[in-house]
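Dear U.,

For the methods section draft, I wanted the exact inputs and outputs in one place so we can describe them consistently. I've listed the two proteins in the order they'll appear in the manuscript figures. Please don't edit the token lines directly; just add comments below if something needs changing.

First protein:
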Amino acid sequence: MNEKIRDEYYVLTENLDEIDWALDGNCNDIDCDHYMHKDLLKKKYKPVLKHGYSCVKGLRRDRAAVMRLLSMKKFRKYRFEKCAVCKKLLDKLDKHNKIVGFTKPIMGSKYVRWEGVWTHKGCASKFKVPEGWKRF
């Protein structure tokens, strides 16, 4: 049962990433007005292409629906984690949190092991890397 919930969480987060990517201006919706002006670019016209003519409203609605689904109780253990520095609760889907990564060479210098921890952006500079590791 836990594997199904985890798989569902990862599918929803992938969908959320695609929606955020589209809202940032990289829409791949063929019905978006953004694509209606591509033929003008071939004719060397320089129109100002702005994303968001027809699909932003639908994307925002989809993002809100996915966020409501990800707020369900069964996804809390995958979505929320404690900060490695201040030990307060943080949301992995929030843009104010980040992963602090650090590496350590293993088997000589041929391979590198990577580890990462979730922290708030303000706490990231306070994080002390374990001895023998270096910040990535």
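Second protein (the one for the lower panel):
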Amino acid sequence: MIDYDKVIAELFPRARAASENAYAPFSGARVGASVVDQSGNVYTGCNVENSSYGLTQCAERNALATAISAGMKPGGAHVLLVYATGFEVLAPCGACRQVMSELLADDAVVISCHSETEFRSWSMKELLPNPFVLS
């Protein structure tokens, strides 16, 4: 069972700090994400918007890409926390859900919050019950 108070205390400040680096001239939504791997290493990312909206990079995917580039193996993280300004709960988009389904552990928890006391969490099965997979 996950200790939400402990996880949020560790990951929330890092995700909030990452959100301050967001490039969000179109939506104004500054989003940060932090992911912790099985060794306790924490990786962060922020959203980077683009005038060609389809090229926008979400904070969740940027945090996971940072973790992978630092050597985390797919399935090596059990918690990802998303922080966003201006939202009570920001559920991950479909593209992020697909990437998370491939890079997070099967039993991973995704937490979305705008404060350290108000949050919502989902399992990967709740976020994406039938992910696209190549067999």
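Candidate sentences for the figure legend, describing the second protein: The first helix runs from residue 4 to 19. The chain has a mean pLDDT of 95.

Thanks,
Y.
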